[in-house]
């Protein structure tokens, strides 16, 4: 019987997931609809899942009990107050919140956007040595002695020798009986990844634009997290100068002043040099900007990008958010320099929340 | 029924001996008080099992459907967060099945047993339950089998979607149908041609001389007249002849459904009729059960050690709040009030005509008919007639009742009135048709185009529009031709229509049927 309800519950969850999947585009474009909950769970509001009936509207009233003068308010319309006439019980506004694990969400994202699974860099040198204690030897340090095995050996020897006395079961191991735990070294292909987010925080980037970036970054994180076990994220902000910051600062800083994209590239290069050797890491760079750059800086920026960054990255993505102030020229500069189709460079224009969906598809659709 | 013959799904834990003893005692007390019930089987279950059963409406086997799963998740979540707990669960069946939570203290389970015997007595003796299927446990299992068979054959998705569609109209039944013969049974064996015993249709002629006849009564006009009359006669054979409350039945008989769909629809309809009396007697049923658990427990069932625990839990069930009229509380207080009034003879013209307040307050004719009266009440009434008959001005004052309404401006529910008439009217309105709009089928061949025309019998409260739209969509899926409903919207008679593609709204000249609340 309990099995039966499990089946119904599973069916219910399946339908919910279907609802989520059907509305994924909406969720992606409305960042506020998703509440993070703990490390690996998000709660997602799902549009009503009840069966429509002919029902009375709001103005039906009811009967209650208690103190109070005529005209005194007793509850808001949205409260769960239900008289015998179900006043205030407004199922139309019931919003079911479902908890979905990030993995599952990424799965839906992948399915919906038809994202290819990422092939980690095919370099055999990207290996990690691991030690596993999974065997037994006859020699070894005393600290690794396996007591149980040792005594089993001793018992076996005594039985075969005939010196074992069941009436007085004393087992004394000798040197030969000793057994020691031993390890094996195994090579594991390693798939570490780092995402470097770069963002222009000069005066022309408003909060709206940052929200766009944040939403997009959330989905990129969600997807890449399922593809790599150890995913590191680094954040670089820049105006005329660049610095590495934490996530919180990344989204909430607003600077004024000029824009030199090359400063961010330089900072990124330093960061990669310092902490993420190309041989061991899958590197993803996402740069968000409104496309404004100090004119003379373009040459330097493109050179840095071409010589120092692109050879190291799996993917270098440039997302240009539309801003009322930005000129949007940098995108054209990139197009000119590298052409629209490039192996590691992906360009995308993000005009508004609606465009995030396609932008994600463009960025991650390469499967790199 | 003995334990060994129970179907397999009832294989719960056996009752521990102390609860078997308790059951024996409480059953004996209940019988001594005159309660009369089918044999009652208690099952000891853990919280998870209880939620699973409760999610399926108390039945161990229901047809597969996601909403049981949803119900179950809500119950178990509410329980694990400590927000709610199901105390008692009993099904109207012969024998009655009731579930006890294994983790409850023994005194709690005694309380539940006493409460359950109240319900069982009510199920067996209340007139509104008299037509319910007393073998419903078997029936739901049978329904489940049929639905599963259809799912195997036509696909889970297909059948489930159809069930969802039908559930939209599950409350459009005629709750009085089991007691009233609305129409003659269709005569299966009437083979005679219906036209034979009817007058042949002839056109009226003007008197005329024979040689003038073809001018005074031109044959073409006569033929038209015959035609018109025939059409009129056809129109008179409207389907349904009278507006019909049982929309489910109308669809069963008239909608173009496949055999399996008809069967599923009839399953849902029979379950809807089974559950209807429970919604109709919520206040009375809970009040009656509470009355008996408190009587039995306080007089016989309690050890000194249990008193505080009992009082705590009893108070929890009876708590009321400004926006929630607790059916347990209202019911039990009304039963107590009735018992006292009939014990002291506080009824009849003599009492009603008495103007002396002091005399009324100390009225006592020593009638002593209270017990007898409440047993009579539990046999005859449902919530609507119960409140209509026994809610008194005194009672309203004593229990500080008021009516409330929604204030559009503030967005709050506000206390509207403390006048007895207003309160009673409001309460009766909330109980009429179980608090749901009255909908009936007016015409199954609207505009002679096979469209379905429903009517909302307007009682002063408008329909919730979004829901009405969605319901029309589902109705259209069943009927396949356009569907309409006449209702009132923003104080204007309006016809809402859905033709399978889009919704249309038209104001109507014809006034909607209005019923005074």
Instruction: Classify the helix fraction of chain B into a percent range.
Output: 40-55%
Distance between the termini of chain A: 48 Å
Largest interface: A-B, 50 and 83 residues
- State the low-pLDDT regions of chain B, or none: 1-9
Shape label of chain B: globular
Question: What features would you describe in this structure?
Answer:
The complex is a heterodimer of chains A (368) and B (517). With 368 residues, chain A is α/β, with parallel strands linked by helices. Chain A folds into three domains: 1-51 and 92-114, no CATH class; 127-187, no CATH class; 192-364, Rossmann fold (3-Layer(aba) Sandwich), CATH 3.40.50.410. Chain A has ten helices and 13 strands. Chain A has helices spanning 2-22, 24-29, 102-113, 147-161, 207-227, 247-252, 261-275, 297-309, 329-338, 353-364, and strands at 35-37, 41-46, 62-65, 73-76, 96-101, 127-137, 180-189, 192-200, 230-238, 242-245, 281-289, 315-321, 345-350. In chain A, the strands form three sheets. A six-stranded mixed sheet of chain A has the order 10-9-8-11-12-13, with helices on both faces. In chain A, strand 8 (192-200), helix 5 (207-227) and strand 9 (230-238) form a beta-alpha-beta unit. In chain A, helix 5 (207-227) runs parallel beside helix 10 and helix 7 (261-275) packs parallel to helix 8 (297-309). Mean pLDDT of chain A is 78; it is low at 78-94. Chain B has 517 residues and is an alpha+beta fold. Among the domains of chain B are: 3-126 and 281-301; 321-431, no CATH class; 437-507, no CATH class. Helix content of chain B is 49%, strand content 12%. Chain B contains 20 helices and ten strands. Chain B has a five-stranded mixed sheet with strand order 6-7-8-9-10, covered by helices on one side. A three-stranded mixed sheet of chain B has the order 1-3-2. A two-stranded antiparallel sheet of chain B has the order 4-5. In chain B, strand 2 and strand 3 (96-101) form a beta hairpin. In chain B, helix 17 packs antiparallel against helix 19. The radius of gyration of chain B is 28 Å and the shape is globular. The model of chain B is unreliable at 1-9 (pLDDT under 50). At the A-B interface, helix 1, strand 3 and strand 4 of A face helix 2, helix 3, helix 6, helix 13 and strand 4 of B. Strand 4 (73-76) of chain A pairs antiparallel with strand 5 of chain B.
């Amino acid at each position: 019987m309990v099995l039966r309800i499990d089946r119904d519950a599973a069916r219910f969850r399946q339908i919910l997931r279907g609802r989520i999947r059907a509305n994924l585009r909406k969720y992606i474009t409305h960042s506020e609809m998703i509440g993070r909950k703990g490390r690996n769970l998000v709660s997602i509001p799902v549009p009503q899942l009840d069966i429509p009936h002919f029902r009375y509207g709001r103005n039906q009233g009811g009967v209650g009990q208690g103190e109070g003068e005529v005209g005194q308010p007793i509850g808001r319309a949205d409260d769960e107050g239900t008289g015998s006439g179900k006043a205030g019980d407004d199922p139309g506004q019931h919003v079911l919140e479902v908890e979905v694990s990030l993995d599952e969400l990424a799965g839906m994202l992948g399915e919906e956007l038809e994202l290819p699974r990422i092939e980690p860099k095919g370099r055999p040198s990207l290996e990690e040595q691991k030690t596993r204690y999974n065997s037994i030897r006859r020699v070894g340090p005393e600290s690794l002695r396996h007591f149980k095995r040792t005594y089993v050996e001793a018992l076996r020897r005594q039985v075969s020798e005939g010196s074992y006395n069941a009436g007085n079961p004393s087992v004394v191991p000798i040197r030969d009986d000793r057994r020691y735990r031993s390890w094996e070294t195994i090579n594991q292909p390693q798939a570490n990844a780092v995402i470097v987010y770069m963002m222009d925080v000069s005066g022309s980037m408003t909060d709206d634009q940052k929200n766009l970036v944040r939403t997009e970054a959330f989905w990129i994180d969600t997807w890449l997290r399922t593809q790599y076990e150890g995913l590191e994220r680094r954040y670089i902000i820049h105006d005329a100068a660049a610095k590495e910051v934490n996530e919180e600062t990344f989204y909430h800083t607003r600077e004024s002043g000029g824009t030199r994209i090359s400063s961010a590239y330089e900072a990124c290069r330093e960061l990669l040099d310092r902490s993420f050797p190309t041989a061991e890491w899958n590197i993803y760079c996402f740069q968000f900007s409104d496309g404004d750059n100090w004119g003379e800086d373009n040459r330097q920026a493109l050179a840095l990008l071409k010589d120092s960054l692109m050879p190291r990255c799996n993917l270098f993505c440039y997302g240009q958010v539309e801003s009322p102030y930005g000129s949007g020229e940098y995108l054209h500069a990139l197009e000119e320099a590298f052409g629209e189709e490039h192996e590691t460079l992906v360009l995308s224009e993000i005009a508004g929340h609606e465009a995030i969906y396609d932008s994600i598809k463009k960025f991650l659709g390469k499967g790199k | 029924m003995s334990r060994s013959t129970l179907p397999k799904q009832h294989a719960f834990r056996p009752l521990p001996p102390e609860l078997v003893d308790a059951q024996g005692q409480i059953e004996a007390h209940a019988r001594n008080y005159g309660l009369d019930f089918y044999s009652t089987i208690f099952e000891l279950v853990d919280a998870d099992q209880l939620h699973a059963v409760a999610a399926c409406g108390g039945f161990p086997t229901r047809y597969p459907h996601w909403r049981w799963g949803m119900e179950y998740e809500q119950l178990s979540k509410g329980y694990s967060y400590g927000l709610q707990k199901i105390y008692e669960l009993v099904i109207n069946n012969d024998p009655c099945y009731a579930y006890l939570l294994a983790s409850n203290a023994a005194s709690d389970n005694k309380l539940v047993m006493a409460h359950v015997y109240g319900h069982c007595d009510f199920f067996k003796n209340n007139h509104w339950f008299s037509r319910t299927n007393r073998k419903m446990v078997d029936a739901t299992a049978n329904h489940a089998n049929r639905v599963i068979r259809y799912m195997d054959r036509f696909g889970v998705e297909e059948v489930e979607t159809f069930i969802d569609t039908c559930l939209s109209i599950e409350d459009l039944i005629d709750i009085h149908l089991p007691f009233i013969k609305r129409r003659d049974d269709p005569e299966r064996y009437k083979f005679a041609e219906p036209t034979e015993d009817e007058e042949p249709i002839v056109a009226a002629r003007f008197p005329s001389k024979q040689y003038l006849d073809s001018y005074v009564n031109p044959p073409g006009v006569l033929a038209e007249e015959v035609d018109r009359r025939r059409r009129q006669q056809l129109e008179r054979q409207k389907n349904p002849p009278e507006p019909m409350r049982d929309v489910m039945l109308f669809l069963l008989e008239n909608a173009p459904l496949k055999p399996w769909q008809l069967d599923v629809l009839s399953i849902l309809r029979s379950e809807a009729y089974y559950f209807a009396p429970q919604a109709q007697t919520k206040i009375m049923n809970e009040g009656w059960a509470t009355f008996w658990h408190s009587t039995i427990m306080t007089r016989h069932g309690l050890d000194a050690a249990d008193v505080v625990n009992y009082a705590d839990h009893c108070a929890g069930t009876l708590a009321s709040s400004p926006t929630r009229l607790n059916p347990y509380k209202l019911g039990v207080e009304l039963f107590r009030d009735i018992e006292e009034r009939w014990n002291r003879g506080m009824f009849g013209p003599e009492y009603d005509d008495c103007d002396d307040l002091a005399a009324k307050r100390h009225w006592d004719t020593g009638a002593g008919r209270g017990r007898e009266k409440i047993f009579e009440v539990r046999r005859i009434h449902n919530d609507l007639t119960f409140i209509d008959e026994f809610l008194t001005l005194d009672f309203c004052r004593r229990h500080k009742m008021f009516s409330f309404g929604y204030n559009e401006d503030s967005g709050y529910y506000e206390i509207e009135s403390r006048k007895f008439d207003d309160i009673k009217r409001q309460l009766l309105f909330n109980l009429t048709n179980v608090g749901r709009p009255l909908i009936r089928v007016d015409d199954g061949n609207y505009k002679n185009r096979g469209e379905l025309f429903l009517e909302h019998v307007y009682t002063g409260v408008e329909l919730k529009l979004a829901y009405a739209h969605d319901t029309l969509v589902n109705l259209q899926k069943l009927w396949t031709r356009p569907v309409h409903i006449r209702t009132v919207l923003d104080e204007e008679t309006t016809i809402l229509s859905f033709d399978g593609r889009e919704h249309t709204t038209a104001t109507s000249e014809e006034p909607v049927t209005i019923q005074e609340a």
